Design the sequence.
């Protein structure tokens, strides 16, 4: 019979590992990722626990010494799992015509997070190869550059996540989980490291994290490299309580004033014929509860204005409004 002390240590260690995060479904354990390409990130607020604890203990239970200590094997890669993305069909509605149309996209179903990746779907009998981009609405100021060549492929992704310190007690932790694509076209995420953001700082505090990777594949005695860079910035922003749009003449007089709830601005604003510029005021709630106002100016050189609204999870979403400067 196993010594009670040894069993207690074993049980405590098992519970400790189980408490590091919720267990997620795994389709298989980590394989050699040689040739698999980094294509983006899947950002979560919870640790993406893909570790196969059961298999690990089955393989390492003999390493419990009679003295009650546990020798932990440093090589645990074979126990690390993958979270695979599925192709889902979403029905969209054209806001102008009311007609519907379907789009296909890759999603990590059942797991909350912000996807930002670019995958190449291989050709099939029904259709040729195509590129699928996945960018959550919580990724603002996104810039994507993709290059496919005979000798080199490259992907460059940059984006910003704005979060509200009002919704964070003191800190918020976001996990940057790398997303890969295997040679057979499957897309999967692996557990990544966490970045702790201090919500006690005021608006304007800025962080950034970059993932970079270069892989080389040799086929038919010909080598081809693939370079990927993913840069995600995190910025603190106070959540707007209301947005005021002021149309001003060339003598700085107010022509019109309109007040909106954040996220409820119209798709298009047509300035008055006498409007020289537009001032947008965002009235925001600071962490201490006081209100602050930020202002932006737009003239005929601008085709759009942008404002933000805050989701219930504390992530701010950018809304774009078109400006129709047609004076007719």
Sequence:
């Amino acid at each position: 019979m196993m010594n009670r002390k040894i069993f207690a240590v074993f049980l405590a260690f098992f519970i400790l590992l189980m408490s590091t995060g919720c267990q997620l479904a795994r389709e298989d354990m980590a394989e050699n990722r040689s040739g698999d390409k980094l294509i983006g990130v899947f950002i979560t607020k919870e640790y993406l626990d893909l570790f196969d604890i059961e298999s690990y203990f089955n393989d390492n239970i003999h390493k419990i010494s009679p003295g009650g200590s546990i020798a932990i094997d440093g090589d645990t890669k074979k126990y690390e799992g993958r979270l695979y993305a599925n192709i889902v069909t979403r029905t969209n509605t054209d806001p102008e015509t009311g007609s519907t149309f379907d789009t296909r996209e890759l999603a990590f179903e059942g797991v909350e997070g912000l996807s930002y990746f670019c995958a190449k779907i291989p050709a099939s009998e029904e259709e040729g190869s195509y590129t699928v981009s996945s960018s959550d609405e919580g990724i603002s100021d996104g810039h994507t550059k993709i290059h496919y060549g005979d000798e080199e492929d490259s992907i460059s992704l940059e984006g910003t996540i704005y979060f509200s310190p009002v919704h964070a007690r003191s800190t918020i932790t976001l996990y940057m989980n790398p997303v890969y694509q295997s040679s057979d076209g499957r897309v999967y995420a692996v557990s990544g490291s966490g970045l702790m953001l201090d919500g006690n700082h005021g608006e304007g505090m800025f962080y950034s994290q970059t993932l970079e990777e270069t892989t080389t594949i040799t086929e038919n005695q010909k080598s081809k490299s693939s370079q990927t860079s993913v840069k995600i910035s995190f910025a603190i922003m106070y959540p707007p309580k209301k947005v005021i749009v002021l149309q001003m003449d060339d003598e700085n007089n107010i022509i019109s004033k309109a007040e909106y709830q954040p996220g409820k601005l119209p798709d298009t604003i047509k300035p008055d014929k006498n409007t020289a510029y537009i001032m947008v005021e965002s009235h925001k709630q600071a962490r201490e509860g006081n209100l602050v106002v930020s202002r932006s100016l737009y003239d005929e050189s601008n085709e759009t204005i942008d404002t933000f609204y805050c989701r219930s999870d504390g992530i701010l979403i950018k809304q774009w409004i078109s400006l129709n400067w047609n004076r007719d």
Remarks:
- The chain has three domains: 4-30+49-79, 83-236, 240-323.
- The chain is about 5% helix and 50% strand.
- The CA atoms of residues 285 and 291 lie 5 Å apart.
